[in-house]
Amino acid sequence: MSAGCLPMASRRAIRTVGPWRCLDHFSGVPLMPSIHEILAEFRDAAAGKRDMGDKFERLFAGYLVTEPQYKERFQNVWLWSEWPGRGKKVDTGIDLVAEERFGGGYCAIQCKFYGPDRKIEKGDLDSFFATSGKDPRFTSRIVVTTTDHWSTHAEDLLDDPKVPTHRIRLQDLDGSAIDWNQFSLKRPDKMKLRPKHSLQPHQQAALTQVLDGLSKADRGRLIMACGTGKTFTALRIAERFAAGARLSKGSPPAHGRVLFLVPSIALLGQALSEWSAHAEQPMVAFAVCSDTAVGKEVRKGEDTTEIRLHDLPFPATTNAKTLASQLALLADTKKLTVVFSTYQSLATIHEAQTRHGAPEFDLAICDEAHRTTGVTLADQDESHFVRIHDANYVRARKRLYMTATPRIYMDSAKSRAAEAAAELASMDDPAIYGEELHRLGFGEAIEQRLLADYKVLVLAVDERYVSRTFQQELAACSKQTGKSFDDYFSDIVKITGCWNGLGKRMAGGDSDLLGGDSAPMRRAVAFSRSIAASKQVQQLFSGIVSRYVEQAPDEVQSSLLRCEVEHVDGTMNALVRARHLAWLKEETASEAPVCRILTNARCLSEGVDVPALDAVLFLNPRNSVVDVVQAVGRVMRRAEGKKYGYIVLPIGVPANTAPEDALQDNERYKVVWQVLQALRSHDERIEATINSIDLSGATLGDPEGRISIIGVGGTPDEDPGDGEAPAPPPTQIPL
């Protein structure tokens, strides 16, 4: 390769290749056939475009009367031609009409059966929006589409404030409760549901202890590791309340009114969909949230993943009077009534109860409860997140705080808060959070084989080796872009470490540290310090790997790991993020080993449903222990053939410095110590104090070999000619 600017990843559009299959959330088993395959059969069997469109309309009508959340929302669904209220009007863009069960009115629905690469333009929707906007009977709209490509002007139409509009995407259909394996082309309007989940033993244990604890107290904490079914367990707990469980002596039977709180609209949508799909009794759901309320919480430049209200698969409100009136209609219902709300919209709940007579909740469930901790100064208003603690602000008989990552403040922080006359919410305070009712930590979940075990690979890269290998390119790129030499050098060092870790290229071919798990990794998520840093890593990664592969002997090139890399961040809309996640799920067609990597700053750390991963890569220190543990939870989900999840920490080591000596510089290698401290705080198997780790190379104290330092690179004159210079021997960190 000529000495030019650093090789960048080739830019290409991402699209779903062939029919990709939805994975069952619990088992990871593909559900077949997918909606993609069914639509492909529609296209093959249709007599023409009109026939193809008719089939899709009937399929979607069947979906609306079968999918639990829409079955409860609508009491009738008609094709436009069969709607009694149509009169003599011709079809001007409205394909289906659904009658709202609560609040009256009708929902106008348009079905867009397009190819996956077809872009929806404003002109494709103008007639539908004009017709439905003129008729006051239409109080809501739905646009269902088989393409994720929308023009900006088309997407702007979805934000019409007068008539709420919701977009249903192909992945919403594919991930729904519908059992597409039972679907018949002969009866596209007749559908069956997938079997509902049953409580697993560890979830039953949680349910039993929570119900017992709340029978004696008004508040309590449920701690369950990421990926062990916390949201589903909460559903079964709520259903027991709705069934009339008596929670304290002399109390009346529960009425089945539940408030479920989450920190984001995306999490609200996930919880609402999961509860609707697996509820064992009829459930009426309401959503309380707004783009504006959630948006105010996002600091400038922060990388958070959020969805717009039009991508929430359910109409939402922030009108307290409307919410109260709808709850009043259900005063005598035997159905489970659930209000899903973001913490940021708690003011709507408060107003509905205090000004409009909305009833008390039987149970308030606070998901991601670590977000409700924090300090409130004496002269400041409480944040949205801590207001849930106030029994006068939100009336609920019982409160359950759920998280995988409890946030607890040290005694020193509590003392400073007291000195400042500030209120501190820490999850070890029983007056605020109640007692811990049940705990399933990461270590116990691994021992029960609910999660995959993990290994930490600290890849110590010889900086001199990298500098000499890429010296000309670094100089050229720095001159071309105006960025400093060090700005690129640090990333190349880390990419070098990541590539060796993902390929499991141990020194001397020794894979003993990996317990025989020597197959290269296939899917990973990388975390950088910022969106800009994430984009730079994405641009550099594939090119750097290609350079290493090119300089290797021909006979070994085919066995070396290639990397395909994309970037995602919270500024992208939901459709673009979904395409990137679908790309990460897909299998590659390459004969050589390939790992797909999705880079981000923070938007994939909490509440995003990413596929089963082999590794997370930390390229920079994280600001929060909770961020680390949430990210690590992504690689601990079990999958067929998966032995371990890997946490890869690439670091640069100065020339002629042993990795274990370099790591004594705690500030420079802060990323390593932060991750280890975070793991220590949430994995009860790690009992020793991480700060006193012996880096001398002894292996006592860590019989599982959970954490290893692995040297990468060496001086050019030591190069044996296989494309990689010798590395220092790997070292296990004893705990």
Folded structure, characterized:
Helix 1 (about 35-45) packs antiparallel against helix 2 and helix 18 crosses helix 19 (about 530-550). The chain is of the alpha/beta class and about 725 residues long. Strand 10, helix 10 (about 290-295) and strand 11 (about 315) form a beta-alpha-beta unit. An 8-stranded parallel sheet has the order 11-10-12-9-13-15-8-17. Strands 20-21-19-22-23-18-24-25 form an 8-stranded mixed sheet, sandwiched between helices. The chain has a 5-stranded mixed sheet with strand order 1-2-3-5-7, sandwiched between helices. The chain is built from 24 helices and 25 strands. The protein is globular, with a radius of gyration of 27 Å. Residues about 10-30, about 245-250, about 295-300, about 685-705 and about 715-735 have low confidence and may be disordered. It has 3 domains: about 35-180, Trna Endonuclease, Chain: A, domain 1 (3-Layer(aba) Sandwich); about 205-310 and about 335-345 and about 360-440, Rossmann fold, CATH 3.40.50; about 455-730, P-loop containing nucleotide triphosphate hydrolases (Rossmann fold), CATH 3.40.50.300.
In spatial order, strands of the major sheet run 11-10-12-9-13-15-8-17
Shape: globular
**What's the pLDDT, averaged over the residues?**
81
CATH architecture label name of the largest domain = 3-Layer(aba) Sandwich
Summarize the amount of helix as a percent range.
Answer: 25-40%
CATH class of the largest domain: Alpha Beta
- The beta-strand count equals 25
Query: Looking at CATH, which topology of the largest domain would you report?
Result: Rossmann fold
CATH superfamily of the largest domain: P-loop containing nucleotide triphosphate hydrolases
Low-confidence stretches: 9-32, 245-250, 295-301, 687-703, 714-735
Number of domains: 3
For the termini, the CA-CA separation is 44 Å
- Helix count equals 24
Strand content: 15-25%
Largest sheet: 8 strands, parallel
